[in-house]
Design goal:
The strands form six sheets. The chain has a six-stranded antiparallel beta barrel. Strands 4-25-21-22 form a four-stranded antiparallel β-sheet. The protein has a four-stranded antiparallel β-sheet with strand order 5-20-24-23, with no helix packed on it. It contains seven helices and 25 strands. A hairpin with a 2-residue loop joins strand 23 and strand 24. It is of the alpha+beta class.
Length: about 375
């Protein structure tokens, strides 16, 4: 009886033998790997499926290969970022000289002194005020038609000069704080001249402060005005300060890929001060559900990201994906997966190498290019 061939008997004939740790190196006969202390494994022709790779169950077990089912869900939305406190500039007031004047006396002399609304800050002598006031007072009792016209012009001149109420006829006036707050800047001293427009005092309110935080661009889309915020300050351990997002600023740091967010923190007791560092906790608006995969399942980053998907027949296929946010060891998949697929989370780099050898990655790239051009791969 003639010998039965391997093809006739149904015996599987290896294409080559390989070391799983160095899959691109092929050997024409079995034996021990020259690279690792292990036996070479056979590679059969029927182990390569269309667009995929088959791995023997024993090999999967030896390599500790694990898979996970892709589930749809939302990532934990709370994020923590650093921030710095500053003045709420909406409460800032500037006390300046409306005309050329001389600082006769200064009542507030030290920066960062707390003041109340109506509290005297300084007394000024302004000759222009004295002249205009004397002229208006001289015309105040005139009855003739020309005098009444001049009186109206004199009053308009007083308003144009910014003549405050309570000015003496000599042009001496006491300037008071317009609001409660802190004198953050003093621009003059007693005896100095103050030309028109000179900053005399800068007063900042303390009822609220601005907290500016750098937020990753990936989560900025879920943040808008009135997003609730909690902040903890290093200088006040154990305390939590609540506020809200006032605006997302059009200011992006290209190096850190973050965007500035302005937060308003209430500060009724004045316990917070500009310059303090803080840790900010924000809760962006709920996002739509997305397929979620363990971050360790991803191969590559950005436009080159992919995962290894196991189909119903046990074959493994590389799948290009576009990723979104990552948190708590999970990553959103914006496109490429729908949910319910089985992805490899351990040992996927070996399969990726096998896919490269079998041409699966080349077919994947061809499919991507065809999809981008609107053609079928």
């Amino acid at each position: 009886m003639p010998p039965v061939s391997a093809a006739t008997s149904g015996e599987r004939k290896p294409l080559y033998w390989y070391d799983p740790m160095v899959p691109d190196q092929h050997f024409d006969k079995p034996g021990k790997s020259p690279f690792m202390d292990m036996q070479l494994l056979p590679k059969y022709a029927d182990e390569a499926s269309a667009g995929g790779v088959a791995i023997a169950p024993g090999v999967q077990q030896n390599l500790g290969m694990r898979t996970a089912v892709v589930k749809r869900g939302r990532l934990a939305s709370d994020i923590r970022v650093p921030g710095t406190l500053g003045w709420d500039l909406r409460q800032e007031r500037i006390v300046s000289a409306r005309v050329d004047a001389i600082v006769e006396r200064q009542f507030v002399k030290t920066p960062f002194e707390a003041v109340r609304a109506g509290q005297p800050l300084a007394s000024l002598i302004a000759p222009a005020w004295g002249t205009a006031l004397a002229e208006a007072q001289a015309l105040s009792h005139a009855d003739s038609s020309p005098a009444r016209a001049l009186r109206s012009a004199a009053n308009q001149r007083l308003r144009a000069l910014g003549m405050p109420a309570g000015a003496a006829r000599s042009g001496r006036i006491v300037l008071s704080s317009p609001v409660d707050g802190v004198v953050s800047e003093i621009g003059v001293r007693e005896g100095q001249s103050a030309p028109t427009g000179t900053l005399l005092f800068r007063i900042n309110g303390t009822r609220s402060l601005w907290l500016e935080a750098a937020v990753p661009q990936a989560v900025v889309a879920g943040i808008s005005a009135d997003t609730p915020v909690e902040a903890s300050v290093d200088a006040r351990p154990g305390e939590t300060f609540r506020g809200r997002v006032e605006s997302v600023l059009p200011q992006i740091d290209a190096g850190s890929r973050t965007q500035r967010v302005r937060i308003v923190l209430d500060n009724p007791d004045g316990t917070l001060a500009p310059g303090m560092s803080a840790q900010v906790s924000l809760r962006p608006a709920a996002q739509v559900e997305q397929p979620l995969v363990p971050s360790e399942a991803l191969i590559g980053m950005g436009a080159q990201a992919r995962v290894i998907v196991q189909d119903d027949k046990g074959a493994f296929h590389p799948m290009a994906v576009r990723t979104g946010r990552s948190a708590d060891g999970m990553t959103e998949i914006v496109s490429g997966l729908k949910g319910g697929e089985k992805v490899v989370v351990s040992g996927q780099f070996l399969i990726d190498s096998e896919a490269s050898l079998s041409g699966a990655l080349e077919r994947l790239d061809t499919g991507d290019k065809a999809q981008a051009s609107g053609q079928q791969p």
